[in-house]
Design goal:
- The protein is of the alpha/beta class and 401 residues long.
- The chain is built from 14 helices and 8 strands.
- It has helices at 2-33, 39-69, 126-132, 164-181, 194-205, 222-240, 243-252, 262-278, 290-294, 301-319, 327-330, 351-360, 378-381, 383-396; strands at 87-95, 98-106, 113-117, 141-146, 187-192, 210-216, 338-343, 366-371.
- Strands 1-2-4-3-5-6-7-8 form an 8-stranded mixed beta sheet, sandwiched between helices.
- The protein is globular.
- The relative contact order is 0.12.
Length: 401
């Protein structure tokens, strides 16, 4: 938080001093034309230039320092000691020629490996998972991946070049890296929201690499999901007499959207539905702790900025590529156990679509686990139950071989 405050102060000082410099420069230019400029004016201009340069250099140095010193906290037990065989790393990898970041955390490096796939596309949940699901670190080596175009990996690939296939290729490369590093034939996979779709793609394409998969806030049909969400937001707005929102929804029209404003148009109903869930008394711990997550040590100052850029820019470019995907048509057979962790009150990813998919899905084992006090994010709304159910599905069912 101190870094953020210093950054904001230096940024404000840089902007103000630059404005002053521009005004002084214009003033001196006018005096020069009139041949009324004096050494005193030039000294004042020089001082302003030096102040701007110092402020910019200090800010650049602060940003660089924050990036170089970003880290994930060490694992500590109840006594504040670090378990002997624990692991807590923030690591940069090259996956298919693209530089990307992962965090690796666990009490025991010999535990099963669990790769978590964040939502988005363009979202980073490296810090959020560490805070909300820290109990998993006692049972797994938990790996969080900032996917291309998100957070610490924002510059891994030009946004215009990112496709769903980019994520599939890099997800597979990351899986192979983890298998080799931790001497595992297979790992566990978990994905939330967009990450739940990416997880289906990966286990479908590379079944030999995974023990089992958990999807939460599971995405099934992207285009239909958007239409349902739009209709739900309109229904709620009409019931509450929210004429301003109704006007905005009508102006945008029914999704799916294409072009340069996908993020902003989708945000109209998605943010409204998120607020609706946050105000539902049946949902526990309803909101995202965005300030806490951004302030976390995993993110340098540039990463903190890219935290938002990924959500806006990457989402806008990638999401409209996903409208043709329907799990009920293209991914009806998976070769490992599949579990869906669903919030009973999720109005973001319609659970009716997951139930339809569940009925036709062929898998060695499959199960829907309901979270009665959750919305779109059971891992945040009910973290204790979430961890318990992960252990039941993954470990107690003896999927480790």
């Amino acid at each position: 938080m101190l870094q953020i405050m210093l950054f904001l102060i230096l940024t404000v000082l840089s902007v103000i001093s630059l404005v002053v410099l521009l005004i002084l420069t214009a003033y001196c230019a006018i005096l020069g034309i009139k041949k009324k400029i004096t050494p005193k004016h030039l000294i004042r201009l020089k001082k302003a230039m030096i102040f701007v340069a110092v402020a910019v250099i200090l800010n650049a140095g602060l940003i660089t320092l924050s990036q170089l010193t970003a880290s994930t906290p060490r694992i500590v037990d109840e006594s504040g000691n670090t378990p002997q065989n624990s692991i807590a790393e923030l690591t940069e990898l090259e996956l298919n020629g693209r530089k990307q970041w992962i965090s690796i955390r666990g009490w025991d490096k010999s535990a099963p490996v669990l790769l978590f796939l964040a939502g988005g596309p363009g979202g980073t949940q490296m810090a959020a998972v560490r805070h909300e699901l820290k109990e998993l670190e006692k049972h797994f080596v938990v790996v969080n991946w900032d996917q291309p175009g998100s957070g610490k990996s924002y510059y891994a690939e030009k946004i215009k070049n990112i496709t769903a296939q980019t994520y599939i290729q890099d997800g597979h490369a990351l899986t192979e890296y983890l298998k080799k590093r931790f001497s595992r034939e297979k790992i566990y996979l978990m994905g939330e929201s967009w990450g739940s779709a990416l997880g289906i793609f990966l286990v479908h394409n590379y079944p030999e690499s995974y023990h089992a998969f958990i999807g939460t806030g599971q995405m099934i049909d992207f285009a239909e999901t958007e239409r349902i969400d739009y209709a739900k937001a309109m229904e709620i707005a009409q019931s509450k007499g929210n004429t301003a929102l109704i006007k905005r929804l009508n102006a945008n029209g029914e999704p799916p959207y294409y072009g340069n404003n996908v993020t902003w148009k989708s945000a109209v109903y998605l943010n409204y539905l998120s607020a609706y869930m946050a105000n539902n008394p049946e949902i526990h711990n309803p909101g995202y702790n965005t300030i806490r997550d951004i302030a976390s040590s995993e993110y340098g100052l540039l990463d903190k900025i890219n935290f938002f850029r990924g959500i806006i820019n990457t989402y806008n470019h990638v999401y409209q590529q996903l409208y043709t995907i329907d799990m009920r048509k293209d991914y009806t057979k998976l070769e490992m156990p599949v579990y869906f962790f669903l919030g009973r009150h999720d109005v973001n990813a319609p659970t009716v679509l997951v139930e339809e998919y569940f009925q036709i899905l062929e898998a060695p084992d499959k199960k829907i686990v309901w979270f009665e006090h959750s919305g779109h994010s059971p891992w945040i709304n009910e973290p204790a139950k979430f961890v318990k159910e992960v252990l039941t599905c993954f470990l107690e069912n003896k999927t480790v071989k």
